[in-house]
Each structure stands twice: as structure tokens, then as C-alpha cells.
Design a protein that fits this description.
Helix content is 20%, strand content 20%. The protein has 265 residues and is an alpha+beta fold. The protein has a five-stranded mixed β-sheet, covered by helices on one side. Strands 5, 6, 7, 8 and 9 form a five-stranded mixed β-sheet that branches. The radius of gyration is 58 Å and the shape is rod-shaped.
Length: 265
């Protein structure tokens, strides 16, 4: 039995090795992409540009060109304003027929038609300014207090009244008519029962329990006035003469020690 031995074949040629097959799909893909891009650019140039131009966004379809706005030429934004010569001017208004009315002149206001104060305020003001001095109230510079009218007058040396106002005198029978003089003054004072305080105290006589004089409306321990201003003109005190604060200050400045005080019934 003969054993065949294959001989090894050795080739030195250029095609002796196994050739790798060439791949052509990258070229085909590149060609397809290039063609697609070219078609897309052409379509955009032909179809999209006229639809998204400024003229299509601003000018309605079928409208005539305005100013620099021309379909055949480049679009201008914003459109140029028409010249004054091209602008439409409204025709002048027709003349008004009939008599021409002049400006309205408000009627003159007569003194009788002017606003007048309320009767209550007028009566109070007139009564305060025209309250005459009581008879037999002395002469010269003095303070006059009328117990029946519950009113005080500050009288100058020439006999003219400098100030007059309502007060609240004593509700008790502890002060009689007569001529007195200011003998003491206190900027702040306390009542004889220590229940209240007052200011601008001008004393002119003495009572059974304590001095009697002019001062502000007292306030209690809680700082509340013991009476209202509207109650002035009514006897409410225990001996002194209560006054509204501005009036008390006026009397304080008017009456140093030695000033004459005349009390009438």
C-alpha cells in the first residue's frame, strides 16, 4: 500500500494570499445623503422662502404695496410712513348754524345768598362777644365774676373788656358778692380732699375748708376731667371758679398778685 503525501505548495505571487472582499455601501450611503441634501436645499429655496418672508407676515394677501413694501423688490420693515402730501386730510367741519353762545358766566353771588353759620353757633358767638359788664362791677383794671351768669370778664384799665367766657362756680353758698384781691398763685395745685388736681390756680379769698380762686377744670386720679367743657356755665364746684384751659391761662397772665376781683350776685 502506497501512502500519498501531499506536498506543500508555496507560491510567491501577488495573488497567492486570500483577498478580502471590498465593501461598497459607504459610497452608496454618501451618495444618497448628498443627493437628499441637494433636493432639500432646492425645495427650501423654492417653497419655504416666499412663505416666511416679512411681506407675507405683514402685508395681507392681495393688498397693494405700502411705502417701501414691494412684492417685486426686497421687503422693508417697518413700512415707511406716507408723506404729508400723500396723507388724507379730513374736510373742514361745516359751520354751526344758529346763534353762537358765549362762555357761561356764573351768576354773581349776593351777600344774602352766601352760606351763613348755624343759628346756634351765631347765638353763642354773639352772646360771648356782646355780654355786657354787670352793673356796679367797679372801675379800672379788674376781674369781674357774676355768680348768676356764671361768667368772667377780664377788664382793662380803660374799662374795655379784654376777654369774657363762661365758667363753673360754686354750687354751695360759700362765696358772697364783694371786692377782693389776688393774694396767691400756683401753677399746679391739689384739691383740699386730695381727690383731684388743677392748674393755673389764682386765689382771691378763703373759704371754710380751703382757698377759693380761679383754675382749670380739675382732673381726678385717673387723669379724667371732673366735668366737660360743655358744662361750663353751670355751678358745679365746691367753691372755686373752674375755667377752660385757654381761659385759665389768659387769666393767669392777666392777674398778678394784687389784681382786683369783683364778685357780683
Amino acid at each position: 500500500m502506497t501512502v500519498r503525501r501531499d506536498r506543500s505548495v508555496t507560491s510567491s505571487g501577488r495573488h497567492s494570499a486570500r483577498r478580502r472582499p471590498r465593501r461598497h455601501w459607504p459610497r452608496w450611503t454618501a451618495a444618497i445623503l448628498a443627493g437628499g441634501m441637494a433636493a432639500t436645499v432646492f425645495a427650501l429655496h423654492e417653497d419655504l422662502v416666499p412663505e416666511i418672508g416679512i411681506d407675507a407676515l405683514v402685508k395681507p394677501a392681495g393688498a397693494a404695496p405700502v411705502g417701501g413694501f414691494d412684492a417685486a423688490g426686497p421687503a422693508v420693515y417697518p413700512p415707511a410712513a406716507p408723506s404729508v402730501g400723500d396723507a388724507q386730510v379730513a374736510p373742514p367741519a361745516a359751520p354751526v348754524q344758529g346763534p353762537v353762545q358765549g362762555p357761561t358766566v356764573p351768576p354773581s353771588v349776593s351777600p344774602s345768598s352766601q352760606t351763613t353759620p348755624t343759628p346756634g353757633a351765631t347765638a353763642t358767638s354773639a352772646r360771648a362777644s356782646q355780654a355786657p359788664l354787670p352793673a356796679r362791677s367797679g372801675k379800672g383794671r379788674r376781674i369781674v365774676f357774676s355768680m348768676s351768669e356764671q361768667r368772667v370778664w377780664l377788664v382793662r384799665k380803660d374799662g374795655r373788656t379784654a376777654r369774657t367766657y363762661e365758667v363753673s362756680g360754686s354750687k354751695l353758698d360759700n362765696l358772697g358778692p364783694g371786692r377782693y384781691e389776688v393774694y396767691s398763685r400756683s401753677r399746679h395745685a391739689t384739691s383740699y380732699d386730695l381727690g383731684s388736681t388743677m392748674e393755673y390756680f389764682v386765689r382771691f379769698t378763703r373759704g371754710v375748708n380751703a382757698p377759693i380762686g380761679f383754675h382749670t377744670i380739675p382732673v381726678d386720679g385717673d387723669g379724667r376731667p371732673v366735668q366737660t367743657r360743655k358744662q361750663l356755665g353751670t355751678p358745679l364746684s365746691s367753691g372755686c371758679v373752674r375755667q377752660h384751659r385757654p381761659d385759665a391761662i389768659a387769666l393767669w397772665e392777666f392777674a398778678p398778685v394784687g389784681t382786683v376781683v369783683v364778685v357780683v350776685a
